[in-house]
Every structure is written in C-alpha cells, then in structure tokens.
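Translate sequence into structure tokens.
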Amino acid sequence: MNEHKIGIGIDLGGTAIKYGLVDSEGKAYWNSKKPSNAKSSSKEVLKNILNACEECIEKAKELGLEVESIGIGTPGLIKNRDIVLGETKNIKNWKGTAIASFISTQLKLSTYVGNDADMMGLGEFKFTEGSNKDVVVFITLGTGIGGAIFIDGKLFQGQFGLCGELGAFPLVVNDAIFAWEDKASTSALINMYKAAKSINELDVSIDGKHIISKYMEGESEAIEALGKSTDYVAMGIAGFVNVFNPKKVVIGGGISEAGEFYFDIINQKVQKYVMKECFENVKIVKAELGNKAGFIGAGVFGLESKVC
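Result follows.
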C-alpha cells in the first residue's frame, strides 16, 4: 500500500458540500459534492459533513492513500479552529456549533475548521506558482463578500484568528454607513439592477449572468447598475491595496466569470481611488480554481494545522 499521506477537504456552502482528497501541495486526488441541507438543522448539516468525510476515507483506501487530517471551510467567524461564532446567513442555527470537536470524536482524525473564504483563498494561493513569499489579497464576490489575506506566503488571520472579514469593511455612501458587501457584492448588483428596472425584489430569476448579458447587449439599466457596482468594488480594492500593497488581488465568485472587460473596468476604476505609488506593479486577476478552491484550501489547511 502506498503510504502517501493526504487530507480531507470539506467546503460547506448553503446549497452544497464540496469535498475531496488533497495533498499538502494542493493536488486533488478525488472530489465530489452533495447537498448540504443547510436550511434543515445544524445536526443535519453535521451529519452530512460526517458522511462526506466517511466517503472520502473509503475512497482513500481504494486509492491506497492514508488520511492524515480533515480541514473544513464554513461560513462565519471561527474560534480555536473549531467553533462557529455568530449567526450565518446560509446555515440554520450554526452559531456555537463545535464542528471540529464533533467530527474528530466520530472519526478519530485531527480536524480543523476555518472560514470558507480563507479556505478558498488558500486553495488559490497554493495553485499559484512562485507565491511563497508574496503578499496577496483574495476577494470572492457573491451573496456577500469574503476575503483572505496572505503575508509572506502565509494565511494571515490576525492576533485572535478572526482576520479576513473584508466584506464588513465600513463604507460611507451619502452620509449613511454600510458594509462594503452591502454595495459591492453580486447581491447588491442584482438589487441595483432590479431597482433600475422596477422589478420586484422577491423575483429570483435575475442573477449576475443575466445582468452581464444585458450589459453586453447595451441595455441602459444594466450599464447603470454595473457602473455603480464596479465603482464600489474598486473603492474597496483600492483601500486594501493602500493598506497591504500586495503583489496581486485575486477576484473569485460568479461575477469573475464575466470576462476580461470586467477586470479592465475594475483596473481603471481602482486607479481613481488608490494611492498611485501603492498600485504600481499590482495585478488584479481572476481566480483560477473555480468551485474547487474551497475544498482544496480546506484540505491543505488541515494538513498544515496538524503540522503546527
């Protein structure tokens, strides 16, 4: 039997659990997904995570691989790489859930939990060659905005492990205070478009792809909404560039699939708000791993946490 040690990576979302077998370099040996049933109960979600881990263990045996650890990415702030702090929008009664304690007790494997955006960022970071000493800001635009910061090639989580909530950064608009994600997320873009078109807010048929399509057709409401959205996105990115002076800013989430034109707009608008010296040589690029980044990053996180 090949004793190559790997980790289980779990990416928990409001709709699905993506999971797989990953080594410390971010190579995925196998992966799958299943519904998370996030709106049912915390017990049901834990059971689904456990089932995904058990499936990974069986697959590892088939492949002749030895599971060393489990890493789990979940929405929310995480205490001690285990407990969810505060409520989460996508998962019912998730506050206070000791995820790592439950899974490690059931499976007798070292288990570590991190914020889902941190895990996605770690997956992307591992995928990028020659980045071991880089400063990188990772941003994912979706229902809200997630983020991860890497300094000298390491995930930066702050003094108490709660760093990276980029979407919560305060933004003042017309003398009112908002979180950055209230104005710059894909959800915010959709709301702007609905308002411009006088569409009922409860209409779920409108998504980011629809707006991009209408933008490409030259529809005035789509052009207006995307124009406002990219202004807010650029403001936030400019602020983080001024603070961290990264080598690059990586943007993930569905809107990042819009095309090169979207990144051209963001680059142009960031220059309006950023300190020129801080932006020199900084690249704003699209995330490459798509929906695999979360479980890959979680698997790497579990392996690196066990070593520590």
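Note: The mean pLDDT is 91.
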